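User: Just a sanity check before I run the rest of the batch. Below are the structure tokens for the first item. I only need the designed sequence back.
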């Protein structure tokens, strides 16, 4: 799982040195957790969860504006009686490649019908 996350963060570029460091760090933490007291393991777990919470809060703050724009557009489409379709380009949302393609696919289907 950590290697998959590393590949995502490095945009698919394989770096064997970083991967080996990651593996060594995971083995070291496993060894450390097995020979130390449970209190130490729980303290480390609490620190890890705390870090994840902060990272998620930062991500939520970054994504709040596009999410609120999207919610407003959704509600507006529902009010008009339209079956809501998410179009990131129309809303000015960047890097939503899948949704751009999906929107175009839906538009093509509508034009054929």
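Assistant: Here's the designed sequence for the first item:
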């Amino acid at each position: 799982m950590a290697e998959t996350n590393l590949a995502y963060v490095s945009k698919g570029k394989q770096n064997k040195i970083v991967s080996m460091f990651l593996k060594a760090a995971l083995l070291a933490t496993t060894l450390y957790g097995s020979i130390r007291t449970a209190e130490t393991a729980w303290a480390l777990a609490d620190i890890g969860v705390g870090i994840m919470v902060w990272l998620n809060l930062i991500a939520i703050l970054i994504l709040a504006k596009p999410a609120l724009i999207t919610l407003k557009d959704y509600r507006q489409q529902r009010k008009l009686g339209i079956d809501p379709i998410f179009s990131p380009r129309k809303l000015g949302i960047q890097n939503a490649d899948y949704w751009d393609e999906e929107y175009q696919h839906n538009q093509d289907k509508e034009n054929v019908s």
